[in-house]
Design a protein that fits this description.
The protein has two domains: 89 residues, Urease, subunit C, domain 1 (Roll); 296 residues, Alpha-Beta Barrel (TIM Barrel), CATH 3.20.20.140. It contains eleven helices and 18 strands. The strands form four sheets. Strands 1, 2, 3, 4, 5, 16, 17 and 18 form an eight-stranded mixed sheet that branches. Strands 11-12-13-14-15 form a five-stranded parallel sheet, with helices on both faces. Strands 6-7-8 form a three-stranded parallel sheet. The model has no long low-confidence stretch (mean pLDDT 96).
């Protein structure tokens, strides 16, 4: 299959160059001029980029509910899997061809991953963490299908092994409290202790994978970096010291700054949530913009992640994160695109397969009509998506 006439993005040089691209067996084979008589997908004048990677989603969570207290408590059997399959389709159609689900719900997300891989439904390439490992928590009843309570290193090892046995690709832990939690849990307080975090990392490394650490609190961030977690999720109360540690250790940061923006953009929606949760979102938004700017200046490896699954933060609107990185945090469009392509691929250990439009890599790509280097919001109008050479979306007429 040939894609003809598009402006092909070179992530390393941060520039577009008009050309044609040939795909065979799901891989990019060559970038050259297509023969004049060959059948081709006409992308004349469009801007063609690698498929984007969202390193932090929750496809099983009902984002249309403002109530964080077990949103599926009245759901009929099958509802969660159906929701997750719809969320997966929305992800890939908006340009997310790979996603890391860092907390599912009773393993419905793994069933969806398997259905995608089998070709039953459209969706991104999914890497799943299964249930999130947590200390005994007042918030577990809010997310009974998402949390796996495990106290102490031995219990953490058992919990990590359980997720891997159920098909998880990685391990997710709560190193600190959360924003979407009960009033008895503080986001700026640590949860797992260093020995417990190390236990999770040991099991992940034994199984050739990694640990993603939810961490808002400064000490929790420090503990997770030192223990060997591959990524810090959120990183709200990061400091110059923790940024320095991230750079030294090669730890990735997945900032998820769009959560507050998505939640607060509709006041009628936001007012329906728990008051203490609303207050937290309002107080943290500016802090997180500021700290992401500092992370960029410090040279931290920032991988794009949206936390799609939080209230009002819907799968399908994932490009809002990339736009906010540019509009609020000082990233250039090229830096934000790199965060959502090559940096995300590196975090997931897929840098030799994804993130660039070069021969030998997977034919994951998206196209937009306008130049995202001139206006990053052009990425919110994706009209073409291919994953592993399979065209999932093309709003233009095929030639």
């Amino acid at each position: 299959m040939w894609l003809k006439g598009g402006r092909i993005y070179d992530v390393e040089r941060a520039m577009f160059e008009t050309g044609d691209l040939r795909i065979e067996n799901g891989l990019i084979v060559e970038l050259s001029r297509a023969p004049s008589d060959v059948a081709a997908v006409d992308l004349d004048g469009a801007y063609l980029l690698p498929g984007f990677i969202d390193c932090h989603v929750h496809i099983c969570v009902n984002t249309e509910s403002a109530d964080g207290n077990n949103p599926w408590r009245t759901a009929l059997p099958g509802t969660i899997a159906l929701w997750a399959s719809r969320a997966a389709r929305r992800l890939v159609r908006c340009g997310i061809t790979t996603a890391r689900d860092v907390g599912g719900w009773d393993y419905h997300e793994i069933a969806v991953r398997e259905a995608i891989d089998a070709g039953w439904i459209d969706g991104p390439r999914l890497l799943c963490a299964g249930k999130i490992l947590s200390i005994t928590s007042s918030t577990q009843p809010y997310y009974p299908g998402m949390y796996e309570e495990a106290d102490g290193p031995d219990a953490v090892r058992h919990g990590a092994r359980k997720q891997l046995a159920r098909g998880a690709n990685l391990i997710k832990i709560l190193a600190s409290g959360a924003v979407n939690s009960t009033k008895y849990e503080r986001a700026d307080a640590i949860q797992y202790r260093p020995d417990e975090i190390r236990a999770a990392v040991e099991i992940a490394e034994d199984n050739f994978t990694h640990v993603a650490a939810h961490a808002h609190a400064t000490q929790a961030i420090r503990n997770a970096i030192v223990a060997g977690c591959r990524s810090i999720e959120h990183g709200t109360y990061s400091t110059d010291e923790t940024f320095r540690l991230m750079v030294e250790q090669g730890t990735f940061m997945v900032p998820t700054i769009c959560t507050a923006h998505a939640f607060l953009r509709n006041p009628e929606f936001a007012i329906r949530t728990l008051p203490h949760v609303r207050e937290r979102y309002e107080s943290l938004q500016t802090i997180r913009y500021h700290n992401l700017s500092k992370a960029r200046e410090a040279g931290v490896k920032v991988a794009m992640g949206t936390d799609a699954g939080t209230p009002g933060n819907h799968c399908g609107d994932n490009m809002q994160e990339v736009a906010l990185m540019v509009e609020r945090c000082g990233f250039s469009p090229a830096e934000a695109i790199r965060s959502a392509t090559v940096v995300g691929a590196e975090l997931l250990g897929l840098g030799d397969r994804l993130g660039r439009l070069v021969p030998g890599l997977a034919a994951d790509m998206i196209a937009v009509e306008n130049d995202p280097l001139a206006d990053i919001n052009a990425l919110r109008e994706v009209f073409f998506v291919a994953k592993q050479g399979h065209v999932i979306r093309n709003d233009r007429t095929h030639s």
